[in-house]
Every structure is written in C-alpha cells, then in structure tokens.
Amino acid sequence: MSQPGPTTASPEAEEATTEELVRDVAAALAAGAPEAARHLVEDLRTPDLADVIELLDPDQRVELIEAFGSDFDFEVFSELDETVRDQLSEALPNEFLARAVKELDTDDAAYIIEGLEESDKQEVLSHLETSDRAALERNLEYPEETAGRLMQAHFVAVAPFWTVGQVIDYMREADDLPESFSEIFVVDPSFRVLGSVELSRLLRAKRNVLVETLMETDRHVVLATEDQEEVARQFKRYDLFSVPVVDENQRLVGVVTVDDVVEVLDDEADEDMKALAGVGDESLADSVFETVKSRVPWLVVNLGTAILASFVIQQFDASIEQMV
Q1: How far apart are the C-alpha atoms of 74 and 198, rounded to whole Å?
Q2: What are phi and psi of 185, to 5 degrees?
C-alpha cells in the first residue's frame, strides 16, 4: 500500500493561516498578555515573523518585539517593509537599536538608523566599537540607492604573497570577519583589487601555495556611487554572486552579495507594478488617509476617461442601434 506523500499548503491557505495568527496575536496583546502573543510566534521563521509584525497595529508591533526581550532575532528588521522599519526605529529605545546594529550587517544596520534624528543616531553609534562605527558611518556617507549604501563593509582581503596556510590561520584567528562569505579578495598595499579566490578553491589547495597563483584576475568591480539598479542588472547579466565595491580611488571599501541584489530586483519590480496600476509608492503600513490621497488623482482620471467614453458612445447611439 503506497504511503501518501507530503502535502504543501496552497498560498490561499497560508494567507488564511497568517491572518488567523495575526488576529490571535493582536487579541493577546490587546488583553495585556504579551507573553502569550510571543508564544504564538516564537517558532516562526524570520520572514514569517516579519509578515506578522507588518500586519499588526504600530503600537502592537513594539509590544510584540519587546516581549521577546534579548531573544529577539534582529534579522527580522532586514525582512520588514521600509515604512514599518522606519516606524519601529522611531518607536523602539536607542539601546535596543544599538544591539540590533551590532548584530546586523552594515547595509541592514544603515537602513535602521538612517531615518533617525541626528542626536538619536549618534547615541546609537556611540554603543559600537570604533571599527564597526567607522564602517557604518562610511556606509551612511553614500547616497541612498547606490552600491555604497547597499554594500557590506565587512569582507576578507589578503595580500597576493600570502600562502594558503597563512590565509586559513588568519581566518581562524581574526575576530572581525563576516559571519558568512564565499570569496576572498586579493589586494595590493593601496587596497586596490587585484583579484579574488573562491573559498572552495582555497581549501582544496596545499598550505604552501601562494594566493596569487590561485586568484582570478578578471574581477568585476563597481563604484560605490553607482546606482543600485545598475548593479543589479550587472549581477543578472554576468551571473555574479558577489562583487567588490571600490571608491573613487579604486580602493576596496565593501562587497555587494546576491541576496542584497535580490531585494533590489524585488523592489524595482514592485515599483513597476505599482506604476502600471497607478497606486503610487504605497505599503501595508500606510494609513487610510495616505492611501486615499495617493489614489484619488488616478481615480479622478479614470472617472474622466469613463465619462468621455460614454459621451462618445452616445454620439453614435443611432448608428449602434442600426448595427444591432
């Protein structure tokens, strides 16, 4: 007798489940039971928890996050809609934001504090170590929607005369390496990119092999001031997984990875769809007034074109009757 295979919930069922969960969480928070609300969502994955937070009222979002205390996964911030993330940045204490900034990559950390008032921003930055603060401040210096704002400031860079053994020992002992990476950049004394070595290739080589004999010199780079949409197009065109970011002097300052580019492509597609629908730059977090204000002009235009069409039809009413 054959065993039934695993079943996958339909998108409609998943949406219904999320809506029910949001109602239960909202009811628990309204009843003054934040621990019960936390228990309902503590097993959710990061993107799913972000969806629940987005669908809650602004005050309840803060209550739910505070219910997690030190156990809150700060990666949730990178999954939130920009409007919701900005609202939470303003509502949450600076001490909480400082812990989030310490845990997140520099690009995600920059999104959290970029909208804060200068005094709050400086207070959050004061909790960081000197190197982390310098990296984040450099990230914030670049204009929004550029490669410099999109990049991660933590990467692995070595000299070409290092051996494989030296690189491996360095990666084992260094404390300021990124949590995950798949590529090591090779730079000269001026920190200009000479090439790169994939981590898998490095680990397969003997310890006494020089890095320069393993590196790929045909390395695609982007300027920190380059538009992020152009960077995303280059990723798609050349099948890139990561790309080093350089400043105006061609010095390595960061790296853009494919997961960051996916978000850019999603945002670009979302903007195009909204433009076609004439709904403007809206999100789930917008109030009814803001949504109505952005849609009224388009509704008026649609109403005008409908009236014009009916007027034209009326002019040819007799001809239409004859055709019928």
Answers
A1: 29
A2: -95, 140
pTM (whole model) above 0.90:
no
Name beta bridge partners: 185.
157, 196
- The number of angstroms, rounded, from the C-alpha of 75 to the middle of its chain's C-alpha atoms is 10
Residue pLDDT, tens place only, 239-281: 888 999 999 999 999 999 888 888 888 777 766 666 665 555 5
- Give bridge partners of residue 238 from the DSSP assignment: none
Beta strands across the sheet bearing 242-246: 222-223, 242-246, 252-257
Structure tokens belonging to residue 318: 């007799």
Please tell me the distance from the alpha carbon of residue 291 to that of residue 302, in angstroms, as a whole number.
17
DSSP labels, 183-195: EEEEE-TT-BEEE
Residues 93, 95, 101, 104, Cα dihedral to 10°: -90
Closest CA relative to residue 82, chosen from 293, 292, 224, 286: 286
